[in-house]
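Regression test attached.
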Amino acid sequence: MKLEVLYFAWVRERIGLPRETVQTEAATVADLVAELVAREERYAMAFADLASLRVALDQELGSFDAPLAGVREIAFFPPMTGG
Amino acid sequence: MRLSVQDAPFDLGAESLAFAKGAAGAGAVVTFTGIVRDNGGSLSAMEIEHYPGMTERAIAAIMEQAVARWALVDALVIHRYGRLAGGEMIMMVATAAPHRADAFAAAEFLMDYLKSRAPFWKKELGPDGASWVAAKDEDEAALTRW
């Protein structure tokens, strides 16, 4: 399947991209992260500490064990600092 | 209800006045304004990044929760993104209710949730470079009181 993967804040800076299209058969968010980490060091740097990251699936907050079936857009970012 | 995610500045006076005048049936209006702290002059700018699309959805969902929970006549959220200088207004929240307790509580609820559930990220630019503002444990803890 094809996924739009978005990165924000320091995750975007570490990976060096705001977004990319990823072809994957990953079953869960964690599986996708493992694929990305295996690609290149910059992904390993960005995903070094999953506890300090949040994930959104089709623009709704989700978890790293969530399934990817039917998901079109996934975003990774640090805890939000609005207000 | 109105929400606006924008890079342009907003007119606090005009927004507050229009909100209060338009809140038919209200007996109380509460407004909150967030301002960029200049950290004693050491901040040269703050950059606010957001997730277009999700930001609006997340704020709308937070506002719907507030409306479901308190007797609100109306609510308003304006939140800016982009580069802001110290002293500039980042965001405002306004709530209108028949009585003040609901207006105050809903405004605090909106602020607590906007802080850690709306996809914004702040970066401070100063003389020693740039650094992302880290989320605070107490911001997450603040949600448990609701």
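Expected vs. actual: identical. Helices of chain A lie at 9-15, 29-39, 41-46.
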